[in-house]
Amino acid sequence: MSTASPSSPTRNIRRPASLGGVLSVPGDKSISHRSLILNSISMGDALVQGLSGGEDVMSTMHCLQAMGVSIEPAGATGSYIVKGTGSKLEEPLDILDAGNSGTSIRLLSGILASQSFVSVITGDSSLRTRPMQRIVQPLKQMGAQIMARQDDSLAPLVVRGGGLKGIEYNLPMASAQVKSAIMLAALSAQGDTVIHQPALSRDHTERMVTAMGGRVEENGLDLVIHPTSLKAVDITVPGDISSAAFWIVAGLCQQNSRILIRGVGMNPSRTGIVDVLQEMGAGSGLLLVDQRIEGGEPVADLLVSPAALHGVEIGGDMIPRILDEVPILAVAACFASGDTVIRDAAELRVKESDRIATTVAELSRLGANIEAREDGMVIHGTGKLIGADTESHGDHRLAMSMAVAGLLAEGETTIHGAADASVSYPEFWQDLDLLLQDAR
User: Phi/psi zone of residue 141: left (φ > 0), alpha (ψ -120 to 50 degrees), beta?
Assistant: First the structure.
């Protein structure tokens, strides 16, 4: 059971006798951002349906509207008409606020780099501590003028764009945000841009640019982006697998569970969570039902039931595919037999919180046998957690991970900062209550 209103800063949770029901998770956050940004700089109007209502995506929407883009509701919740500007945005009258969204500030910087006006973009106190030099450096190489705090490494960013040229660039890390910022700038550059990736990262930008008539050549991990004018396309956003991950782990680890999650995006660059859980022994406890293609993206319903999990080692090229899911994977590892080792994930230290430190600290409060490493963590599975007070540290994914931990722990768990879940999943607490209600 859980108590307190969905918007409460604190939630109390006890392990239920069972967990079950049918639900749909919010629209994929990555695709939602891109459906707004790319349609805004395209020719024509587009209907976007199933858009995530989380605060991060709303930050992107408000920034685009501040630059003259018309984005209006179109009937059903999550449906909007986006009127394309043909890549000619208006100079904003005020500072652009990306809120807590790293995707917003990094992808929009790629757009701002192509615009022949001055703009300032920033975010909340957390976002202003996150590394920006990784996008500033390539965008400056392309010809944009950018200034930022601490040697161009921290927001706010001051951008004077225009006059871009194509470059050849070696990504220092597998990052969809950095790659996408460069790609968005490259669409308006003189000459082709070549990006060399060290490993696979989510490819939503490549797919959507291509669907809009853009020219992106892929040769293994190398991308060639040709300057192109885009045509607006209607998009139905699939469910966010990063949001579904919380219910997947809850269903696998709760002894009496049966959960059906409808319409989840199954893009291969995003399904690392499914691959890892299958390697951990999810087996028939995690079934893909009614697999299909919608709007160029693979989609499936996920049927989740209990499974006996075991520890695994996770690192290398898998990490970019599960970076957002590490906190909830750590919860699953607590209920797996043996040890789970997560390495090569130092990027977690510069997310909404230091997710290595905060995940280890909060699960330790619940009695987990877990230890931090510089680039990851080791979880010694005990099959048991004990309820305690936990903190979200202002991190939406940590708030939701602690909620799932509370569903599985003995006794009562209190989550302080529970409302932080709304950043990516405004309906999280309602959906949790739905699963508890349906299971009765």
Answer: alpha
Among the options 97, 203, 324, 395, which is catalytic? 324
pTM value?
Answer: 0.85
For the stretch 141-166, pLDDT in tens is 999 999 999 999 999 999 999 999 99
Alpha-carbon torsion angle 397, 301, 280, 421, nearest 10: 10
Closest CA to 414 of 12, 1, 4: 12
Spans of the chain below 70 pLDDT: 1-8, 295, 439-440
Q: Domain ranges for the chain, please list them.
A: 2-27+238-438, 29-236
Residues 179 and 182: their CA atoms lie apart, in Å, by 5
Superfamily name and number for 2-27+238-438: Enolpyruvate transferase domain (3.65.10.10)
Distance in angstroms (rounded) separating the CA atoms of residues 126 and 58: 17
Cβ neighbourhood burial of 291 (10 Å; 0-12, 13-18, 19+): exposed
User: pLDDT (tens digit, 9 = 90+) per residue, 381-401?
Assistant: 999 999 999 999 999 999 999
The DSSP bridge partners found for residue 396 are none
Asked if 236 contacts 49 with a C-beta cutoff of 8 angstroms, the reply is yes
Active site residue 324: yes
Topology annotation, domain 29-236: UDP-n-acetylglucosamine1-carboxyvinyl-transferase; Chain (3.65.10)
